[in-house]
Amino acid sequence: MARRKKIYEGKAKVLYEGPEPGTIVQYFKDDATAFNAQKKDVIEGKGVLNNMLSEYFMSGLNQIGVPTHFIKRLNMREQLVRQCEIIPLEVIVRNYAAGTMSKRLGIDEGTQLPRPIVEYCYKDDSLGDPLVTEEHIAAFGWASQQDMEDILSLALRVNDFMSGIMMAVGIRLVDFKIEIGRVFDGDFQRLIVADEISPDSCRLWDIETGQKLDKDVFRRDLGSLTDAYTEVARRLGVMPKNSTPVTKPTLIN
Amino acid sequence: MARRKKIYEGKAKVLYEGPEPGTIVQYFKDDATAFNAQKKDVIEGKGVLNNMLSEYFMSGLNQIGVPTHFIKRLNMREQLVRQCEIIPLEVIVRNYAAGTMSKRLGIDEGTQLPRPIVEYCYKDDSLGDPLVTEEHIAAFGWASQQDMEDILSLALRVNDFMSGIMMAVGIRLVDFKIEIGRVFDGDFQRLIVADEISPDSCRLWDIETGQKLDKDVFRRDLGSLTDAYTEVARRLGVMPKNSTPVTKPTLIN
Ligand SMILES: Nc1ncnc2c1ncn2[C@@H]1O[C@H](COP(=O)(O)OP(=O)(O)O)[C@@H](O)[C@H]1O
Ligand SMILES: Nc1ncnc2c1ncn2[C@@H]1O[C@H](COP(=O)(O)OP(=O)(O)O)[C@@H](O)[C@H]1O
Ligand SMILES: [Mg+2]
Ligand SMILES: [Mg+2]
């Protein structure tokens, strides 16, 4: 494989320059972090599962006309995506209270919300991704009024679609986070869903048992994260075709 | 069971007065009709399957905040629903060309449409449910401009959710039809999804094999309709708990 230029290494992924201008390669690492990277570990196979699952959700969204950055999966750990200008917001959609919302507002985890609530956090690890309002977003120019409308409608469409997927396999979509990017078609800008959609970025609870099938398993030490993500992949029929247990490559040299 | 007043008998269902004012009981018959009832048959078990499946989809829609008439399932063939004033339109959402759209516009069945297309047909069996435009709808006062906006957004939300459900179980949602009803909360009117959502009102193709799992099996004599609907129910985990084959009640007297 030709040597590619690394553009960015984040907590869960590495970005490389893609083969065509305007494309990048997303490499999914096995690194797991939580609480703004205060808790860290390497979870064998996580990257492969998230790569496959993000492909599954993003290609499904493309199919129904919700534009995403996803172009195609390249191999077990990498996917080709459209490069975009990431809007520095974590867009969170919540159907049930959990996590920081439960803590901040004193609502028991699992309480159904009166309607889906969309929250925005300013994406800045050094600040701990603080919650912001549309006032902040407008005042600091992170997104225009039109952008905000488009982001809201993208977020709600992703929620409807993901809720359907999850319901069909006996999972409750408690909440999820997406990132949105700008792409330019000539003079026009459009917004697309970027980054990843995976059990790292969703809260997924088994409808019957309440069992957590998402990153909270790692955050709260509830067992094997790979087992949880594998269960999601299994229910969706998303499994590495070559379904031997995912192990580290053997170093040869 | 107390004797209930029959309100209406249609091609696939019977409506009875419900226990509370503003409610009705929908009884799902085994009758199958096609081509405006020129083709007819009784398909043992169809009513039970459609009752269960319509419950599954409608209660999922209620969950995600798409309002529907569904209140609760009463038994294998009946569900309690909120009575509404049905808008006399069949609202059709198409993701792939099929059926009458393919015939009318000369597009091969299975061709993916550039985006979901919403069509309206005037619900009148004696006219064969003719396609109408928003001009007709406005001119004849079947729905106001605001109604039309609400209908469009309901239809697209149902499409996103149903597309997710179907994708998760390996089924392509080709198209579907819904009916919309008006309910009054004091002085306010709201629109809700009514009638049924079932393989009678959707086109469902297996993603891998293209096998039809919907009423086209009956329309086109492609095999057992009950087997097709049972397969949809099985994939969704929607099966009569008492899963013995559904047979006619034995008449005792
Ligand atoms: N299509 C894209 N174009 C450009 N940047 C992207 C795209 N998709 C995701 N990104 C960015 O790539 C990085 C993904 O790596 P990740 O390990 O998640 O980083 P972080 O630790 O910053 O969250 C994120 O900063 C994300 O905003
Ligand atoms: N919630 C509701 N309130 C009142 N009428 C309803 C409701 N849901 C469905 N309907 C009507 O009940 C009838 C259902 O029976 P069906 O056998 O499908 O009739 P049809 O042969 O007219 O299509 C339809 O006419 C439909 O418009
Ligand atoms: Mg990230
Ligand atoms: Mg009908």
From TrEMBL, chains A, B:
Catalytic reaction(s) noted: 5-amino-1-(5-phospho-D-ribosyl)imidazole-4-carboxylate + L-aspartate + ATP = (2S)-2-[5-amino-1-(5-phospho-beta-D-ribosyl)imidazole-4-carboxamido]succinate + ADP + phosphate + 2 H(+)
Single biological process term from Gene Ontology: cobalamin biosynthetic process
Molecular-function annotations in GO: ATP binding; phosphoribosylaminoimidazolesuccinocarboxamide synthase activity
InterPro entries for the chain: SAICAR_synt/ADE2_N, SAICAR_synt_PurC, SAICAR_synth, SAICAR_synthetase, SAICAR_synthetase_CS
GO cellular component term, pick one: cytosol
Pathway entry: Purine metabolism; IMP biosynthesis via de novo pathway; 5-amino-1-(5-phospho-D-ribosyl)imidazole-4-carboxamide from 5-amino-1-(5-phospho-D-ribosyl)imidazole-4-carboxylate: step 1/2
Pfam families, alphabetized: SAICAR_synt (PF01259)
Signal peptide per UniProt: none
Keyword Secreted in annotation: no
EC number: 6.3.2.6
SAICAR synthetase/ADE2 N-terminal domain location: 6-235
Family assignment from sequence similarity: Belongs to the SAICAR synthetase family.
Protein name: Phosphoribosylaminoimidazole-succinocarboxamide synthase
UniProt organism field: Sulfitobacter noctilucicola
